[in-house]
Amino acid sequence: MKSDMMKYKGYRASIGYDESDNIFIGEVFGVSDSLNFHGKSIEELEQSFHDCVDNYLSICAKIGKEPQKEFSGSFNVRTTPQIHEKAAEYAFENGCSLNQVVSMAMEAFLNGKRKKRLN
User: Fold this and answer.
1) What is the pLDDT of residue 30?
2) Is the pTM higher than 0.70?
3) Dist. CA 31–CA 11, nearest whole Å
């Protein structure tokens, strides 16, 4: 079973269904600009998504704006002071940065070494 997500040119969109209008709706995520689209069929929805992304990229080029990408590789992490301390100690003891420790921990978690599943 596929997830309710579409991908195009490095952008992803969540998909839903509006019962009152009897249409599929989509929203590109990870971009602060509002990028929404819709269609009555899967084919129409997919074309509308492609048009939405293409129009966004075209407008950005026209006005000289760098198009946003959903993942820059940079984000803030909030944790407890105790976890922060342990991670910083590990980084110091192993000659790496705190960012590298967080990245290694995330990679281990996402590669199946997780202790509990997120809901």
Assistant:
1) 84
2) no
3) 9
